[in-house]
Amino acid sequence: MPLWLREHSWRQTLTAVYLSLPLRGARATAANIFCSEQYLKVSVPPFLFEAVLYAPIDDTNSTAKIGNGNIFFTLYKKEPAMWDSLTLANADKEKLQHLRENAVLKAQEKAKEETKAKKITKQEHKKYALMATMKVEEAERKRIEDLKEKEREKVTKELELWKNQQKDGDKYKSIQTKEELHQEIESLKERKNEKMNKTRIPNEGSSKTRLKSTRGHGSCSIFSQDLKEEQLPAPRAAATIKVNFTPRVFPTALRESRVAEEEEWLYKQAEARRIINSDLSELEDLKEEEKNPDWLKDKGNKMFAMGDYLGAVNAYNLAVRLNNKLPVLYLNRAACHLKLRNLHKAIEDSSKALELLTPPVPDNENARVKAHVRRGTAFCQLELYTEGLQDYEAALKIDPKNKIIEKDAEKIRQLIQGAMQSS
């Protein structure tokens, strides 16, 4: 039995009531005090104090201070007036019970509203944080793209400068070659004149000169011979150079080697790239990171968290086209379809995820539970309760300790039993 605290002191003004309550050695906290507009209760075991106030108070601005073995209440009146007493006089038990129940109901409603407001505020903060993160990522990506563009322009300018230098060098070489040919021809002419002068033999009695006999036929045999001697060598013949690369050497023993697995993996990667390049020609305009299924999955997750379910579905669709062997893409898209009420598509994606989550191992238990629950939810929303119950029982078999799944399965069983009894 609790001990009722009868000893208390109070005083009042037109706007406030000041109440002092002794605790007699008991230790109180804020959780021991309950206050509403017209009801005040202090429960500090083994002591209990309860009062139905004379008039309503402003419970939001009223305060309570605990210290020195006492609780000091400052209760602000809703309407300025002087009270005849602290508590309501001549109140029967039914009225007191009614006031208590109303006070508790109002306190519960107020707590629900505060919880709802906190939840909304938390969601807004989370949404703002996601948007801020996306803006930062977008700014970082733009900065990287700008750096790439600047580097590309720089390389292009350097390449153009090198081409111009090559052209100037070729022009200079051609001019130099022409000058060298001209000088060579001049030197050949001078040699010809010198040889012709040497071949002349002067006679004392006549002014006629006689040329030395030369080899060959024609009057320009000496010049042609000199040209043959000074002729430039022919250019080198073209050829093909073969480069033999060093073969890969695996240090492990042959019985422990993974050469076959590596070759198979490389083949599959090349085949996947070939399929992407042949079937998805529209992806040529996308950036490099936008062609990554993991990047698209994260993008879809952020859109789902922000409530943009249609945008998340589009991101998952493109990721599935890039890689259709990831079960998490089908699982996440099934969740989006449930939000959008595309129930048949949700069933298809959940079934596809279960096909990929084979064999069943401990690492994929969580994913298999999600797939069964989402498919079962879609079946139940289509009023196919028998199929939905099968999925919920399969999920409960994987995770027997999940009370939420067990509770939902029990509800579906009751619905099925009710339908069977009514029929």
Automatic annotation (TrEMBL):
The keyword Membrane does not apply. GO terms for cellular component: dynein axonemal particle; extracellular region; neuron projection; nucleus. PROSITE patterns: CS (PS51203), TPR (PS50005). SUPFAM superfamilies: HSP20-like chaperones, TPR-like. It is found in: Cell projection, Neuron projection; Dynein axonemal particle; Nucleus. Residues 194-220 are annotated as: Disordered. Residues 3-87 form the CS domain. SMART domains: TPR (SM00028). GO terms for molecular function: nuclear estrogen receptor binding. TPR repeats lie at residues 369-402. Its main location: other. Pfam families: CS. Keywords: Cell projection, Cytoplasm, Neurogenesis, Nucleus, Repeat, TPR repeat. One of its GO terms (biological process) is heart development. This is Dynein axonemal assembly factor 4.
